[in-house]
TrEMBL record:
<dbReference type="InterPro" id="IPR007383">
    <property type="entry name" value="DUF445"/>
</dbReference>
<dbReference type="Pfam" id="PF04286">
    <property type="entry name" value="DUF445"/>
</dbReference>
<dbReference type="GO" id="GO:0005886">
    <property type="term" value="C:plasma membrane"/>
</dbReference>
<protein>
    <recommendedName>
        <fullName>DUF445 domain-containing protein</fullName>
    </recommendedName>
</protein>
<dbReference type="InterPro" id="IPR006311">
    <property type="entry name" value="TAT_signal"/>
</dbReference>
Length: 425
């Protein structure tokens, strides 16, 4: 399956980016305020007016809070950029590992959401056959489905592109026939015809028309004989010769018409041997195949297909304009027939099985394509933009790490100060 090549702008700007940015800014100020409060407590603990018993405790709490807050500030900042712009190793983790993160996200989606067993189980729970049966069983839903299909047909039958389509079909037909060995197919068709009950009526019809043609052209034969006769030949002799020719031709045609006459039997024997002659590639077979290829070539088949498509389209469009048209009636009949068939459990089970098999067969290609699409889309993003988007969505929660680090550090500092004081007695 062809891979998808996302453009750098594959991920559109979400509408709430500004809101996320304002929310992140508020939480940054909140985390910074906690750190500033710890720093202020540390500064106040050095003031001369602080009581001797309170200043050490406040200093210990403030120092531990500052350490915790600064450490977590460094950790959170190092995810997205270099703290204070300093080239400290193992910082700016997201920009430097953008491709690895993209592959990881794609792998996570593939593993957690595209696992075949899990998706097949979801398809089974959906019970597609039951859903389709429910839609078809309801006359109102069935009518809406028919209206939907009928409404789509005029657009599908639009005359735009008829000529290119006919030309393409003509070229495809000619190319396919030019490369294919048509002798077996042509021989099979001829064999089926000469052994069918349609042969004798067709032969009689053709011969009868030839007999009628000879009767109607008796004067032409007489004129032709008289025109070729010598000047001294009596006209009665010319007429007798023309009558003899006409009678001989008519007699032979009558013999061809009868399967019992020698000439008729020879004709039928030749026709029965013709399929084998075509299959063996005789000169006659080559002429027949060449005529077939010329007939199906673009110069002949193209216009024929164009006229055929145009005629079918116009007839279908006229029919669709009628509320009681044949196409709508046929769609209603098909939907109603399907509704009745879907009431049978074996039919529903078979349909569910077919859907599951088709889904299972297509899933490996879809799975690989989705994974590649996710990874390539993320990698196609500008590194700075990728980092900004990620920080907007997780940065708010990361600020709570800074807040908790400051508060927890202060609490631990106070606890340790109290424990040290108690142990010192």
């Amino acid at each position: 399956m062809s891979s998808i090549d996302p453009s750098p702008n594959s991920l559109p700007d979400p509408a709430d980016d500004d809101s996320l940015a304002r929310d992140l800014s508020r939480h940054r100020w909140l985390a910074g305020g906690c750190l500033a409060l710890a720093a202020g407590g540390w500064a106040v603990s050095h003031a001369p007016f602080m009581p001797a018993g309170i200043a050490p405790a406040l200093r210990a709490i403030a120092e531990a809070g500052m350490v915790g807050g600064l450490a977590d500030w460094f950790a959170v900042t190092a995810l997205f950029r270099r703290p204070l712009g300093l080239p400290i190793p193992h910082t700016a983790l997201v920009p430097r590992n953008r491709d690895r993160i993209a592959d990881g996200i794609a792998a996570y989606i593939d593993r957690e959401f595209l696992e075949p067993a899990m998706l097949v189980e979801q398809v089974r729970r959906m019970d597609p056959a039951a859903r389709i049966a429910g839609l078809l069983a309801d006359p109102a839903d069935r009518g809406r489905m028919v209206d939907l299909v009928a409404g789509m047909l005029p657009g599908l039958l639009s005359s735009q592109g008829d000529a290119p389509l006919a030309q393409a079909l003509g070229r495809a037909l000619a190319a396919g026939l030019s490369q294919a060995d048509l002798r077996p197919a042509l021989a099979g068709a001829l064999r089926h015809f000469v052994n069918s009950d349609a042969l004798e009526p067709l032969l009689r019809e053709v011969v009868d028309r030839l007999i009628h043609l000879v009767h109607s052209k008796r004067g032409f034969v007489e004129a032709a004989v008289a025109g070729k006769s010598r000047w001294w030949m009596p006209s009665s002799v010319d007429k007798s010769l023309a009558d003899t020719i006409n009678e001989a031709v008519l007699g032979h045609l009558w013999d061809l018409r009868s399967p019992h006459a020698p000439a008729g039997q020879e004709l039928r024997d030749w026709l029965k041997a013709l399929p084998d002659e075509v299959a063996d590639g005789s000169e006659l077979a080559q002429r027949l195949l060449e005529a077939l290829r010329q007939f199906t070539g673009p110069t002949v088949a193209g216009p024929l297909l164009h006229d055929l498509l145009a005629g079918l389209r116009d007839a279908a469009l006229r029919d669709l304009e009628r509320a009681d048209g044949h196409i709508r009636s046929a769609l209603h009949s098909v939907a109603e027939s399907l509704a009745g068939a879907m009431q049978e459990p074996p039919v529903r089970d078979r349909l569910n099985q077919a859907v599951e098999q088709a889904f299972t067969a297509a899933l490996p290609r879809w799975r690989q394509a989705i994974r590649e699409f996710v990874a390539k889309t993320l990698k196609a993003q500008d590194v700075g933009e990728f980092t900004r988007r990620l920080e907007l969505r997780v940065g708010r929660d990361l600020q709570y790490i800074r807040i908790n680090g400051t508060l927890l550090g202060a609490a631990i500092g106070g606890l340790l100060y109290g424990l040290n004081t108690w142990l010192a007695g």
